[in-house]
Structure formats: structure tokens, C-alpha cells
Design goal:
Elements (H helix, E strand, L loop, with lengths): L6 E6 L6 H11 L3 E4 H14 L7 H10 L2 E3 L8 E3 L2 E2 L7 H11 L2 H18 L5 E6 L2 H5 L5 E6 L2 H14 L6 H17 L12 E4 L5 H14 L13
Parallel strand pairs: 1-6, 1-7, 2-6, 7-8
Antiparallel strand pairs: 3-4, 4-5
């Protein structure tokens, strides 16, 4: 039987590797909390664009981030995000935000600010022996470097672009495959090359190439890993509330 998760699972990787879907499903199956840190940067990016702020103006980006209210649910059954009380779950996944989020995410003072909030959410969610699955691009290296299980998901750019395109199409957004692939490759370059918390696996992370794996296969492998690390309580996990 699957046990309930204790502690933190840090799940990193570039876009299109399935990490957000895997993280949410893993949290739900193991009765744990779930935190999508990438959504936090996307919410700030949306606020920046809506306010007409230059995404490359670091001081203005940070000032705006301090002035808005950003709420992120840690319930895997309802992982919503709100900006000043408004649900922006769909708005943060548009090409408009995709094009600017790397620039906003590269602002070091913003990363410091959001990392503090992320750590507070992790501590609150994992309090009293509970578990939390956290996904992003710097979880194992910066946000939760002491996590007992760190995983870095990868996949070929072509596979990731196909997945992103399928998500866009399912959401009713236009998806030209060549454009999506170029966007994925551009985001990889920007995220891996930024000075502040670049995208890279932690030294002790377990790396998984998901190119040929289904979500269920990745979930099974991660659940087994959590068990071997002693992170699962005996018995069947209860859904996280």
C-alpha cells in the first residue's frame, strides 16, 4: 500500500517535462501538499505586463511584486493562484506571459522575495510531520536544498514542445509547433544562463528523462524512490486538505 508522504520532495526541470502534472498527482496520491513555484513567477509577470512595467526594470518589478497580493493554494486537488483576489490560473499560461516570464524570473531581488514566501509555505505545509511536493527550477538547489528527495526531470526539446503544444490546443490556444519549439529552446537558454539561481540539477538530484515515459510510469518511479528514502508512512495516504 502507498503511504503518506513525510518531508519535502523537490521536483525541478525545464518546461514540458511533465513536472507540474507529476508533482500535483504525486502530492494527491501521497496525501501531501503541493506548491507550484513557477506559478508565482508567472503571477508576478502577469502583474508586470498588466501594469505596463518593463520586465527588465528590476527595481520596478520588485516594487510591483511587493505591492500586489499573491495567493497560491497548496492543495493538489485545487491548485489555484490569485492576483489581488482574482483567479489568474488561465491568464498566467498564455504566450504573452510565456514571452516575459524568463526576464522577470531573472531579477535576483524578486527571486529572494519569492524564495522567502516559498520557504514559508513549505514550512507551513510540512508542519507536524506532513509532506509537500514542490516543483520549479531551483527547488533542490536554492529553495529547499535540504530536501531528502530531489528529482530533476528532463526530456528532449522536441518532446517538450509537442507536450506544450498539446496543452495549448487543449486549452483553446493556437499552437504552431515550430513556434512552440523555438519558445521552449529560448526559455531553456534564458533559464540556464541567468546569474540568479540558474536552472540546473542539484548535485544529489536523481535525474529522469521522461521523453519515453508516461505520467504513471514517472509517478511509480518517484513513489518507489520516496519509499526507499524512508519518506512514506505505512498505510494508505489520506487526501491532502
Amino acid at each position: 500500500m502507498t503511504g503518506a508522504l513525510r518531508g519535502v520532495v523537490a521536483l525541478d526541470g525545464p518546461s514540458g517535462t511533465g513536472k507540474t502534472t507529476v508533482a500535483r498527482k504525486l502530492a494527491a496520491e501521497l496525501g501531501a501538499g503541493y506548491l507550484d513555484t513557477g506559478a508565482m513567477y508567472r503571477v508576478v509577470t502577469l502583474a508586470v505586463l498588466d501594469a505596463g512595467v518593463d520586465p527588465h526594470d528590476a527595481d520596478a518589478v520588485v516594487a510591483l511584486a511587493r505591492s500586489v497580493r499573491l495567493d497560491v493554494s497548496t492543495d493538489p486537488a485545487s491548485p489555484g493562484v490569485r492576483l489581488d483576489g482574482t483567479d489568474v490560473g488561465e491568464a498566467i499560461r498564455t504566450p504573452r506571459v510565456d514571452a516575459a516570464v524568463s526576464a522577470v524570473s531573472a531579477v535576483s531581488d524578486l527571486r529572494d522575495l519569492l524564495v522567502q514566501r516559498q520557504r514559508a509555505l513549505i514550512e507551513e505545509t510540512a508542519r507536524d510531520g506532513g509532506g509537500v511536493v514542490v516543483d520549479g527550477r531551483d527547488i533542490g538547489t536554492v529553495v529547499a536544498p535540504d530536501a531528502p528527495l530531489k528529482v530533476f526531470l528532463t526530456a528532449s526539446p522536441e518532446v517538450r514542445a509537442a507536450r506544450r503544444g498539446a496543452q495549448d490546443t487543449a486549452a483553446g490556444r493556437e499552437a504552431d509547433q515550430a513556434t512552440v519549439l523555438a519558445s521552449v529552446q529560448r526559455r531553456d537558454r534564458l533559464d540556464s544562463g541567468r546569474a540568479a539561481s540558474p536552472l540546473r540539477p542539484a548535485e544529489d538530484a536523481v535525474e529522469f528523462d521522461t521523453s519515453e515515459l508516461s505520467i504513471d510510469q514517472v509517478l511509480a518511479a518517484l513513489t518507489e524512490l520516496a519509499g526507499t528514502r524512508g519518506l512514506l508512512d505505512e498505510g494508505v495516504a489520506e487526501p491532502c486538505r
